[in-house]
Structure prediction request, 612 residues.
Amino acid sequence: MSTHPTVHEVTERIRARSRDLRSAYLQRLAEIRGRDRGSDRMGCANVAHAVAGIPSNDKLKVVAERAPNIGVVNAYNDMLSAHAPFQGYPDIIKHEARRLGATAQVAGGVPAMCDGVTQGTPGMELSLFSRDVIAMGTAVALTHDMFDAALLLGVCDKIVPGLLIGALHFGHLPTVFVPAGPMPSGLSNSAKAKVREQAAQGLVGRQGLLDAEMAAYHSQGTCTFYGTANSNQMLLEAMGLHVPGTAFIQPGEGLREALTREAVRTVLGRAAANAYAVPPIGEMVDERCIVNAMAALLATGGSTNHLIHWVAVARSAGILIDWNDFSELSEVVPLLTRVYPNGTADVNEFQAAGGPGFVIGELLDAGLMHADVLTVRAGGLREYANIPSLAGEPSREHVLRWHPAAPSKNEAVARPVSAPFSATGGLKLLSGNLGRSVIKVSSVPDDRHVIEAPARVFDSQGALQQAFNAGELERDVVCVVRWQGPQANGMPELHKLTPPLSVLQGKGFRVALVTDGRMSGASGKVPAAIHVSPEAAAGGPLAKVRDGDLIRLDSVAGTLEVLVPADEWAARKNATMPDAQRTANGHGLGRELFAGMRRNALTAEEGACTWL
Prediction:
């Protein structure tokens, strides 16, 4: 199948836009790859320090036998259910490496925070910036520079983008990502959302709400809704950076350990299926690879956070993308899945229907992904249209087998390109006199794609919740929540706004949210124009909006406008962030340490990068 014309055109535009930056990046990789290996290049004292803590046999392999040495970067902690399984992974990796005549060292750990824990708290204001901290932590770990390859262990929201950004700054290393998988299904996501809405109305008390949440989030593994964490895994599959089909195998399954061992074999070029020298990650992640990730995101209605994160990821590989690229791809990439919040199924049901392998196969067959890309496997991206299984005891070698993910086992969850849920993707670019923003329309009812209503302006999500509780929003309204961008307070997610806005919409009111903050993959069924850029704190037009201004959010036409006469709008002065709020944003619970990041952060469309 030839590449779809729009996919080809967007890819070529990205290639042309990035030519100088990408060329310089690849030149740096070539220079680094030309060096001698670490233990031959470094001074004797450096080498002695590097191997002082490992067993004697491993020292011999690294220094005398010149065996491959894998650097492991681990995002383990047991605060995150998704990352708790990683505790035992280093031992598995080292055992498999030794069995193959290689060695592995845990090069370092990186922080990993749970947005579910910090939602609506000051800690959430560190969340977006934690991505760049993780990238720097990855760089610190790999800077020991004794490694011939890398395995990166991470799953959740900011962790995978941070690991990937860090890895691309060590783009000379062959690199494989190792996930841990989703928790078993508990209370359904739709049932949980219903209880949250009831709690917002005062119909369910704290104990009832807590019982529901505990039934939903109940064991080790990733949360089962299709938010940022699980979107991360879909994108890594589409980029060919996993062992194929690894994303959504649950932590407790025997297949999970077999796939982790296969990741070791893969990065060493000794995969069960074939022998193959894995290319450096910086060469693999080119403009075609980035476009493949974008297509996978759109086809699955994935998290809007990736319109920020993957801009930063691409930039780390010398590639420049913007929201126009996403928008144009969205016009031709169909929506193939319905996974909560875009439907009732969770990721376990998605996996049972065919999972990432089904989606990738469909997109490849339709020419909506580039097949001619490098991956960590010899078979290229076609291998990622398969699902793995065990063909024997986990203790045996070469027990992994792969079979085609197609056809879909449940077309209520995953459909072919020939019969999609929607002919276009789940994300839309909005622009107008309020700036540029994005909206996730894949779960928004068709009759809510255009909202026109008076504005009610809030300086914080807490203020909106207070107005809701006081009954002040019982009408058609566009809620504007500003001072939530990267420079203002680190751009927290505003999930706490979903239940009250859903209640208002459920009562028949026409409501929408407009904000320079984030909503992630859990924005749900309420129209939300998010990531508005430039943000209010940087002089963006949200700072001009006043209560009662008529706002039109039109996700069909792709516009976001305040319907105020042009001369009046031009003459209107910007409001400023309240001094008390600015002071509060900068103090307490570690926020002082992130002042430099707030000052240096680029716009959301530029990836909110703090390191450029």
